[in-house]
Amino acid sequence: MKVLVTGTAGFIGFHLARFLLENGYDVYGIDNINEYYDISLKYSRLEESGIKKELIEYGKEVISQRYPLYRFMKVGLEDQENIYKLFEKQKFDYVIHLAAQAGVRYSLIHPHTYIQSNISGFMNILEACRHNPVTHLIFASSSSVYGMNEQFPFSVKQNVDHPISLYAASKKSNELMAHVYSHLFGIPVTGLRFFTVYGPWGRPDMALFIFTKSILAGEPIEVFNHGKMERDFTYVDDIVEGVGRMIDKPPAGLPHWNGIHPDPSSSSAPYRLYNIGNSKPVNLMEFIEAIEKALGRKAKMTFKPMQPGDVTRTWADTRDLLEEFNYCPSTPVQEGVEHFVNWYRSYYGV
User: Which residues are catalytic?
Assistant: First the structure.
């Protein structure tokens, strides 16, 4: 089966592409390799997958020297012409859309980037799937869509109409756009709300990476909301396994779906939403302690107030995931942090 994975130079996309390849899928990866964070890490991920940096040119297909069934192209989601040509030529069976402009705080100062990538870019993916039908479209949403919700744990059956960052609003928009295309054109679509994904090859803009780097350098870390925060940290391998279990199980429309009392997570169209989280919120100070233990060093901390666009707590209700796919992420934070630290020390030689 031929799978398009968008964002394969990114953190989750890199891991997912390798997982699919190792399980016999024919994978086509795309990424624009933008400079949101250090592009050398993005090229290193591609190199790890056999895609040589010196062969990468915009719009040119590169075949992996490690995985014979892996091809990659540098292309932006906003590039409608090249995206459409790619779909027309390749006739993908599945599409897993992970590429997006990430980051809550970055969206406060670069809002237009999120509209171009997350809205216009996703529209191009939807249109391409409409005109080149696929068996299943899976796309990445985010726990950030829960915004001002304070009913815990967060459930996909809850209303999510109060986002507090443009990043969150763009992800909520993706869910709405996907439902429209599922309803009008019968595209089987699954949206996955990821909860604070971490692990080896992770993003330099996320807390685990920032804290590890600063602690090793003997520099203080900034602890927001004076440490009174909780996150449902989810190890990247758990995310990848969850996607793997869903890929060949596209949703069907639910005949009993009721528009008088609508369930936001499903539809009469072939459309579903799921949370993928560890379902065990961890206090920020406990998270820092896990990093200190893995590094064998104590952190210097500067306590600061809450940042705009941030929330105090996330907690995923994953009952639907368990009931329908017999799956729930389970990697303990201490174990996942240790894996990340070991990778970080090896990669950076520290």
Answer: 167
